[in-house]
Amino acid sequence: MIKGAGLLLGSAGALGILQGCGGSASAAEPAPQEPTPQQLSDPRPSQFPYEQHLAASYRLDVAAVKEAAYQGYYEGGCCHGAYKALLGHLAATAGAPFDALPLDFGKFGGGGIAGFGSICGAVLGGVLVLNMVVQEDTTKLRSALLTHLIRWYETNPFPAYVPHAVHSNEAGRTTLPFSTAITSLQRPPNSHLCHASVSDWCAAFSVSASGPDKLARCARLTADVAGKAAEMLNEYLATKAFVPAVMDDVSKRCVTCHPASSTAQPVASGMRCGSCHGDKLTNHF
Amino acid sequence: MIKGAGLLLGSAGALGILQGCGGSASAAEPAPQEPTPQQLSDPRPSQFPYEQHLAASYRLDVAAVKEAAYQGYYEGGCCHGAYKALLGHLAATAGAPFDALPLDFGKFGGGGIAGFGSICGAVLGGVLVLNMVVQEDTTKLRSALLTHLIRWYETNPFPAYVPHAVHSNEAGRTTLPFSTAITSLQRPPNSHLCHASVSDWCAAFSVSASGPDKLARCARLTADVAGKAAEMLNEYLATKAFVPAVMDDVSKRCVTCHPASSTAQPVASGMRCGSCHGDKLTNHF
After folding, report:
1. pTM (2 decimals)?
2. Nearest C-alpha of chain B: how many angstroms from A154?
3. Which of B36, B101, B118 best tests the A interface by mutation, with the highest count of A CBs <10 A?
4. What is the pLDDT of residue B24?
5. Which of B180, B185, B257, B263 is 20 to 30 A removed from A66 (C-alpha atoms)?
């Protein structure tokens, strides 16, 4: 019912009506921190999706989002890092309705949702904020952005981000050269699932999936993913168009024989098939 | 800044202040649809998580959620069906802040997020609403509920729900006996991923993954999942406790040799290992 507030004050014309009437001292002399009529008629969370509330020239600061995402990782995990960095930046720079939403909503998504190893939480955080902003229409632009973020993740070499300030939870605890040779630590996950992404990377560098090197990797990956989502959103806001990456050639071959429309072993997927079905990549055709 | 509305009106004491002052006709005689002071001081979306705003006796009507989820599936997919059914029910029966949130937020999640085949959208819709309500604390209750919903999904035989009214998009188009012998159509997905869940079921019944039988299955599955989330939420609200299902014995054996803490092939996952790694279930130990 808060959503009626703007309407109510709007119909009253201006806050002067409140200020000018003598009902009580607090009404006659509102404290400085009380909202103005313009603020009370700000866009509300129910007025979704939110690109309708952004100025035509609005763009995100990708570098600021990346650093906030890296730092946020150590406050509440990968999904929280990406979600809070993106939403917090939108709230700080674009205002309502972003500033009316809880910044801690993404904490559930860490480690592939409550540590289950499902979709990478950084990707999920990015997906949730992209979904907040971008309108779906007949050209399926929202789906294009979501598909692109997930598909980009599958093949992007992580981690890449070099933070401005190493978080105190990390400093002095890592064994791998994150600060001096980060490119030597990069691997594409080949899957958008936390389980596969983390397990592969940790095995490749002989580190624990619950230790400080894993945390340092995922903190930087969170910055990479949040930054990518911000870049994609900027491209979309500038052009109101977006062309997603297409399925890889190996997976395309899989769904040639296993299209979703088949009644014999149909496959419903946009993922890279080889991540789980490596045994089908040879001697199967 | 909308979030300041309750504070402002609260400080003004009562709507009588607005009604009693002579600033304008619209302020003196508010239209019937304008919010009351109580409504303007309702809980706001930023006051998260939302169990703090629910009466101690509040419970969801599981049957109502199920039917709404089934019908909602045909409006916008599995995630939308589950999300809108749960959030819409909370909005209708508990009010703010649920009624200040967009009911269409979940449409992005259909088919495992924009059709990508990731986490089942019905599960994701349930996860998002459970996360709205349940507070995480030192006993990790929110994580317990999320883990349980996903793990339950992996082994529950879907579909089970029999709708009160078959949706017009479905009526007369299916070939399988959804209305007369639904138990003959049930299979546990063995995975929480849309891709595996849909592909396995369609192959088992020799139907297309893009045809009306698949839609009818997933519409009922959406009702099953949303209903389960509602049941779990009721149990949690009644007891403020929740014990999640544990990992299956086969997967437990996997992580005995591959714990997350290992530095040699550590595994970060709560999923059923056999879903993707069937080749490791024999001749691997």
Report:
1. 0.87
2. 12
3. B118
4. 37
5. B263
